[in-house]
């Protein structure tokens, strides 16, 4: 009995000493790892801030990823201090991560798309875009979704994956934009006068740029009108107001100079007997008149 008790005590003492050192080592690893993870987070945040134009949301996101990645490594190291097989733990974490990834496939897709949007910058806050079925002014770009405001003041929250997978037309990105205005005038009106009115109005409007040059031309011959067009360039913020003002000024100038803007017209030709010659009788007469054609 004495020998057995001594053996148990010896083994217990060895275990206590062993696990005491393991506990102290694990505690040191936890403290140092926690401090190191915070240092890595701050360093990542400051380091990304040195890149000009790097998005604030991405800075915080990548800093948090570094921090929690370091904490996971610390946790695995602590478990290794107590003799736990970390290979199985890493495999379990991988399986859990895969399961979470499959469950949150749509959400992770939005996060990946949000990162790409923030890195590549197809649009920025304050710019007006059109992407598939979504159009509006960008209010905020998040990791999951993007907030937009439509031209009539409505709130739109679009998933980042939808914006990333659609062609984006940015109406505000380039500093200047071209506009084309086409107005139909009568076939008997003076085409040269209409084109000179275009050029005169464009020269008087300070919002219309002279370089690239203004182009006035006849774009097509319609059924009842000659289509005269003008192409000019303006600064992007002035595009819409210039279009409205120029269209109104062109209409007033055409009226003052006697240039008409005709209504759609159709010429109808009757083949055969005139419909007003007589009223047909029932039967064969009705069929004979119905057989006439109009074009």
From TrEMBL:
Q: How does it sit in the membrane?
A: Multi-pass membrane protein
What are the boundaries of the region Disordered? 272-295
UniProt-listed Pfam families: MS_channel_1st, MS_channel_1st_1, MS_channel_2nd, MS_channel_3rd
**Cellular compartment(s):** Cell inner membrane; Cell membrane
The segment(s) forming the Mechanosensitive ion channel transmembrane helices 2/3 domain are: 64-105
Q: Subunit composition?
A: Homoheptamer.
* PANTHER family, A to Z: SMALL-CONDUCTANCE MECHANOSENSITIVE CHANNEL
Family recorded in the similarity comment: Belongs to the MscS (TC 1.A.23) family.
Known function? Mechanosensitive channel that participates in the regulation of osmotic pressure changes within the cell, opening in response to stretch forces in the membrane lipid bilayer, without the need for other proteins. Contributes to normal resistance to hypoosmotic shock. Forms an ion channel of 1.0 nanosiemens conductance with a slight preference for anions.
The name this protein goes by in its record: Small-conductance mechanosensitive channel
